[in-house]
Amino acid sequence: MHSNKQTLSSLSMFQALDKTEMDKLENISNIQLFSKKSHIIMEGDSRDAVYFIHSGIVKIYTVDVLGNENIIHYLRKDSMFPYSIFFVDDPYPVTAEVVEDAVVSALPIQAFEQLLFENAELAKYIIQILSQRIHLLNNRIREFCANDVNLRIASLLIRLTEEHGIRHRNGILINLQLTHQEVAYMAGTTRESVNRLLNQLKKNKTISIHNRKIMIHQIADLHHFLL
Question: Start and end of every Cyclic nucleotide-binding domain (predicted)?
């Protein structure tokens, strides 16, 4: 595995730091390998670190009183989590579960907060990330407020192509293995509703599904649900 300094310097948010700042970051960081299905943090645990992903995929979610997941994000390299723990004493608001073996840096939260005080460029970068996430969550709230279930599912598929899409000759592959139940959790609907729409989209050749990965062949068909 790379040294802490080499690995951390590969992340976009830290590339503006000078050698002294990188050395300081190296001294407080802890790089760990997490295997699939392991948990990095648990909702309700005391906050002690902020995490940065070097490789792999991490699912961020909460659990309601009935035990249902509310999947918020699937995060990849260059992502930070959780977002809402800076300068507060609240516990972790989410659970982070590894869905593809991941290398992650853990930085003690108080030391990282001090680094933000000392480095305006890094603080600006973090604020930009937080602003982007707020914008994304606002869009999701609008989707959940829509009465049309098909609109919510179509909006979700479009968003997943933007966040996890890989272009192929015959379409865009959403590079995540997703069950119909996970799609339902993200769209705020039932698995039965997801089954119906995905089957319809497959019949219309708008999508295909292989090994639980969705290939979008005609993304314009999904946009029609938004009109």
Answer: 13-133
